[in-house]
Amino acid sequence: MKQDDICEIPCVESEKVEQVQKQLATEKLHDAATVFKALSDETRMKIAYALTIEERLCVCDVATIVGATTATASHHLRHLKSLGLAKFHKEGKLVYYYLDDDHVKQLIQIALTHVDELKTRITN
Length: 124
Known about the structure:
The protein has 124 residues and is mostly helical.
């Protein structure tokens, strides 16, 4: 059975391969993958997206928005914080979370725009 999605003959462009391998050998890629892993969890993505809509939310609000317990919401928020995607501050007995910077917001917006474009391409 013939496969159309693989090379029919072995061919390696050594200069290109070496150049790209050098670029891949950085800790930066590992860290970027960690960011995407954090956002690959649907609950954390919902939380992060909610924080693009409202600049800051208390843990109780987050829990209600995503339909989780405060313990679960808090766990996910701590995870986002530990990866440097979110920060928090305390006001009296309430804890408010917010996204660390606009890069996180941009990642989420780009992902959502991409999803819309994919759906449009598939249906057309």
